[in-house]
Amino acid sequence: MSSLKESLYKMCIDYVQVRIDGAKQGIADAQYAAIEETKSSAGDKYETGREMMQQETDRSQLLLNEANKLMVALSRINPNSQHTTAEPGSLIITNNGTFFLAISAGSFQVESITYFAVSPVSPIGTHLLGRKAGDQFSLNGRSYVVEMVQ
What we know:
By secondary structure, the chain is an alpha+beta fold. The chain folds into 2 domains: 2-75; 91-149, no CATH class. It has helices spanning 2-40, 43-75, 123-128; strands spanning 91-94, 97-101, 106-110, 113-118, 136-139, 142-149. A 6-stranded mixed β-sheet has the order 3-4-2-1-6-5. Strand 3 (106-110) and strand 4 (113-118) form a beta hairpin. Helix 1 runs antiparallel to helix 2. The longest helix has 39 residues, at 2-40.
């Protein structure tokens, strides 16, 4: 089970790394475009172009900051630890899906089984946090039974 958690953890790391790389590329592209705008423009058009590039840089910087926060959250997880109570790094098997409690990264396929990477602060994550095998809860009209926590 621990190699499964390691695989899911690595998939989460890869997910965040793609977001970091995309944000860094967005910043670099906006800065390059601003430099090119400086070389080829004058007057109001120049100011408008520079402002648009600054907004794009700011947006990409915000995305980079958010991705870095996700990476910090992942760095606090030990995928090799075993849990009996759901906490960050836990794999929780329920009657309505299997969840990796880490970050909100969507679903991953491992050996044709779907696993959902969820944040402890997401709606499902807050319901999973602290649960043990046998615990039950309802969310959005669906009943969940925790079958196993690893």
